[in-house]
Design a protein that fits this description.
Layout lengths: L1 E4 L2 E3 L3 H13 L9 E2 L18 H8 L3 E2 L1 H7 L3 H5 L8 E7 L5 H11 L7 E6 L10 H20 L4 E7 L10 H13 L5 E4 L1 E4 L12 H4 L3 H8 L3 E5 L22 E2 L7 E7 L13 E2 L9 E7 L8 H4 L2 E4 L2 E4 L5 E6 L7 E6 L1 H19 L7 H9 L7 E2 L29 E2 L1 H10 L3
Parallel strand pairs: 1-3, 4-17, 5-7, 5-8, 6-7, 8-10, 10-12, 12-16
Antiparallel strand pairs: 1-9, 2-18, 9-11, 12-13, 14-15, 17-18, 19-20
Length: 448
């Protein structure tokens, strides 16, 4: 089975320390077949290792794409007014789970923050299992390091005062580790020990690639849900990227796409909020020049019906769209590469500098930042936000802060027909995207 790091890159406290020490021996993988986890294939290399970030206008002239800074995102998502009210994610913790991590994540966040005038924050790293030494010549490791960098910098861009904990897992077949079970073990350990208010997952595996799927036996997936079940009990919000393959996704070889509609886990899990992708159209100040559309360029926002999970009760109001199945995504944020985010990295000494990255692995930590803001505003964890989200969407009111994406663009990809962004909930962008100034307080006030 292939675990994809969902993302597309275009080139130009003491308690946590204690957990890190304990985690070396705490992993106890459950009995499922070994899974080899590798990052998704990185998209077209157009912008990589640039000496300094450029404006959108300069990016258009040089590479024919838009590229955005966190300052533009803050305007686009109406975050600045929240910050002026003191809602910055302070006192809340975002947990990011990635294989191998990045040895330069703190330095890179510091450079990123300084570039855009943001306060930096201390990134606390938990090594889960025997994480091997980082090798910049190992493409698997550098792929995951790029993901880690993107996750951390995007979460920080939205929730600048939130604490960030990176959990590095040691996925390696030669050491007998087991990919997804290892990640779930790590997440459950964090939840059990009270570390984290929201968990951001920028990885997934196509449901069809799990053992037993073809025979209608979904036990190999359902045995992995224990971390999410514990999160639900402890009121921890769990997010997952919906994927970058539109209505299809990768086969077990990690290279070939299915020629039919499929879905991926953990995004398809009803205990997880599935984060899809949009394309922002902004000027250099971050103001929209036209409404958001569906992410569909060097990848496409994942979405569709799960073949494993039936429709959860929170989607009963959209049953005309999802039918009898769990539908994804639930909500969407910026993910298009043409309109990607500037990030800084130095883990690869041959390509130190600024990149433009996109994918639903960008959208997911962006939304994790939104959840951290809401948790701070509430004064407690909101936990599973699904019912709140769909109830707010059903009001069809601007006051909810949910912004419908309905321009008719779609997430068709690799020859598989996807779904159009239409009025209300759809399988391209979910309920839509957010105006954070209105969405954060509305989410807090809405009954769970």
């Amino acid at each position: 089975m292939h675990i994809a790091r969902t993302g597309r890159a275009v080139a130009a406290a003491t308690s946590v320390a204690a957990l890190a020490a304990t985690a070396l021996t705490a992993a106890a993988p459950i009995a499922v077949p070994h899974t080899f986890a590798v990052p998704a294939v990185v998209g077209h290399t157009l912008v990589h290792g640039v000496s300094s970030p450029l404006s959108s206008e300069q990016c258009q002239a040089k590479w024919q794409i838009n590229c955005y800074s966190p300052l533009q995102y803050r305007t686009a998502y109406d975050l600045n007014a929240l910050y002026r009210k003191g809602v910055t994610g302070k006192g809340r913790t975002i947990v990011i789970v990635d294989s191998y991590g990045s040895p330069t994540v703190q330095h890179d966040l510091d450079v990123y923050s300084k570039q855009f005038g943001l306060p930096s924050t201390k990134v606390k790293v938990v090594k889960w299992g025997h994480v091997p030494a980082f090798d910049p010549k190992n493409s698997d490791m550098t792929g995951w390091a790029g993901e880690t960098t993107l996750d951390v910098e995007m979460a920080h861009a939205v929730a600048p005062a939130a604490k960030i904990v990176v959990v590095e897992t040691a996925v390696s077949e030669t050491e007998g580790t087991t990919g997804l079970p290892e990640m779930m073990d790590a997440e459950k350990y964090m939840i059990d020990h009270g570390v984290g208010d929201v968990i951001s997952q920028s990885f997934g595996a196509t449901e069809n690639t799990f053992p037993g799927f073809a025979k209608g036996d979904f036990s190999s997936i359902k045995k992995l849900r224990y971390a999410f079940q514990e999160a639900n009990r402890k009121h921890v919000t769990v997010l997952a990227a919906s994927g970058d393959g539109g209505a299809t996704d990768l086969q077990a070889d990690g290279k070939t796409y299915y020629n039919k509609r499929v879905n991926s886990w953990p995004s398809s899990d009803p205990l997880v909020t599935s984060i899809g992708g949009t394309q922002l159209h902004l000027d250099d100040k971050g103001n929209r020049v036209k409404p958001d559309s569906v992410y569909n360029d060097y990848g496409s926002g994942g979405g569709g019906q799960s073949h494993v999970f039936t429709r959860p009760s929170f989607q009963n109001g959209v049953k005309k769209v999802v039918g009898t199945r769990r539908g994804t995504p639930d909500i969407s944020m910026s993910a298009a590469v043409n309109g990607g985010a500037w990030i800084y990295s130095s883990f690869d000494p041959t390509a130190t500098g600024w990149d433009v990255s996109g994918g639903t692995s960008e959208a997911t930590p962006l939304f994790a930042g939104i959840v951290a803001l809401a948790d701070q505003a509430a004064g407690h964890r909101l936990g599973n936000i699904q019912k709140r989200l769909y109830d707010l969407s059903s009001y069809h009111s601007k006051g909810t802060g949910i912004v419908d994406v309905n321009d008719g663009t779609n997430n068709s990809y690799q020859g598989v027909t996807g779904y159009k962004a239409v009025n209300g909930y759809d399988l391209a962008t979910g309920v839509g995207t957010v105006d954070a100034l209105r969405f954060v307080p509305a989410l807090v006030k809405q009954k769970p």
